[in-house]
Amino acid sequence: MKILIVEDEPRAASQLQNLLNKSVFDFELLTIVDSVEDTVSWFGKNMAPDLVFMDIQLADGLSFEIFQKIEVTAPIIFTTAFDQYAIQAFKVNSIDYLLKPIKQNDLDAALNKFSKSKSPSNPIEPNILKELLSNIQTPQKRSGILVKEGSGFVQIRVSELLYMYSQDSITFGITHNNKRYIIDETMDQLFDSLDDTKFYRINRGQIISKMAIQKIEPYFNHRVKLSLSSPRDQEFVVSRQKTSDFKDWMNQ
């Protein structure tokens, strides 16, 4: 069984791969791609895999945009941090899904369902795409966040955070007083819970607060570089795919 993983969070992709290795199914991982643009390009150059694991939120947009750009005939299991109620359309339209953090028994059940399915996969119709998008409900945005301090945890206000970043599969948050905290969540989980009018994920590994931005400068390869307060030796570069959207976000 040849598998393609579409996931923009390295930690989540690694966790999924580990779970697949523990399953009873023999598989070959073809590759891992992390954006709408790269997924469309991959399908345009390669034979369809036997199965695709696809995250909903990618580095440059929602994965549903892929099906508007190219026909995908491979069976798909979506992975998502959205709650079960919000994604009932997946079941209605016979599209399977796994909730993050993914559990071994849920993965095994999805693989069993795939292996027993005899009907070929069909391209997703545009009206189904609209239904999927309309059924996704934005989670309530949090005002506080639990962080590690010493041997325990403390809660800080989200408004105190200047930026967050991922390093060696660990998520860190930097506050206005230049303190660094460990946040026990992936970048996907963290960003999904934040107010996207105040925070922006400029690339796979960095989320910044609008209030922390002091200067925006042109950068090579059609990107922009940001100067933030309390940078702590961090460089902030907006990915090429997000530059236009980032400028629109700053104008809001």
Order of helix and strand elements from N to C terminus: EHEHEEEHEHEHHEEEEEHEEEEEH
Strand order in the sheet with the most strands: 2-1-3-6-7
**Pairing-aware structural class of the strands and helices?**
alpha/beta
Poorly predicted ranges: none
Helix content: 25-40%
CATH homologous superfamily title of the largest domain: Response regulator
CATH architecture of the largest domain: 3-Layer(aba) Sandwich
Strand content: 25-35%
Shape: globular
Query: Briefly, what CATH class of the largest domain?
Result: Alpha Beta
Distance between the termini: 46 Å
Major sheet: 5 strands, parallel
Provide the domain count.
Answer: 2
Count of helical regions: 8
Could you give the count of β-strands?
A: 17
Radius of gyration from the alpha-carbon trace, in angstroms: 19 Å
Mean pLDDT equals 84
Q: Which fold does the CATH topology of the largest domain refer to?
A: Rossmann fold
Protein name: DNA-binding response regulator
Domain HTH LytTR-type: 145-252
Keywords: DNA-binding, Phosphoprotein
InterPro entries: CheY-like_superfamily, LytR-like, LytTR_DNA-bd_dom, Sig_transdc_resp-reg_receiver
Structure description:
The strands form 5 sheets. This protein has a 5-stranded parallel β-sheet with strand order 2-1-3-6-7, sandwiched between helices. It has helices at 10-22, 36-45, 64-69, 88-92, 104-116, 126-135, 187-192, 243-250; strands at 2-6, 28-33, 51-55, 57-58, 61-62, 76-80, 96-99, 144-149, 152-157, 161-167, 170-175, 180-183, 199-203, 206-209, 213-219, 223-228, 236-238. The protein has 252 residues and is of the alpha/beta class. The longest helix is centred in the N-terminal third of the chain and has 13 residues, at 10-22. The protein has 2 domains: 2-135, Response regulator (Rossmann fold, 3-Layer(aba) Sandwich); 144-250, LytTr DNA-binding domain (OB fold (Dihydrolipoamide Acetyltransferase, E2P)). It contains 8 helices and 17 strands. It is globular. The mean pLDDT is 84. A hairpin with a 3-residue loop joins strand 15 (213-219) and strand 16 (223-228). 32% of the residues are buried. The chain is 28% helix and 33% strand.
